[in-house]
Design brief:
This protein is mainly α. It is built from four helices and no strands. α2 crosses α3. The chain is rod-shaped.
């Protein structure tokens, strides 16, 4: 009986120590991603074709957020309808941002 108890306690301690180490590592190596990238990516068609010159829709969204506008950027898969949706979304986000700055 004592052998089983020792095994259970030691495995429990190993599991607890491993959990603490993983928790600390996840907090130390956490990567921050701008939430606006996900919001812009929602508007895109998510084809990930690379036709826009970026490595996928998330790359295109990151470039739009970094540039601050959609000037000179176009998604060939989405076409004009997607472009209008993106432009309306982008105008709305800039209005909201300007409103917060006041």
């Amino acid at each position: 009986m004592s052998l089983i108890l020792v095994a259970v306690i030691s495995l429990g301690a190993i599991g607890l120590i491993s959990a603490v180490i993983l928790y600390v590592a996840s907090k130390k190596f956490a990567v921050y991603e701008d939430p606006r990238i996900a919001q812009v990516a929602e508007v895109l068609p998510q084809a990930n074709c690379g036709g826009c010159g970026f490595p996928g829709c998330s790359g295109f969204a990151a470039a739009c957020v970094k540039a601050g506008s959609l000037e000179g950027k176009m998604c060939p898969v989405g076409g004009q309808l997607q472009w209008r949706r993106s432009q309306v979304f982008w105008d709305w986000k800039q209005l909201l941002q300007n409103r917060r700055l006041r």
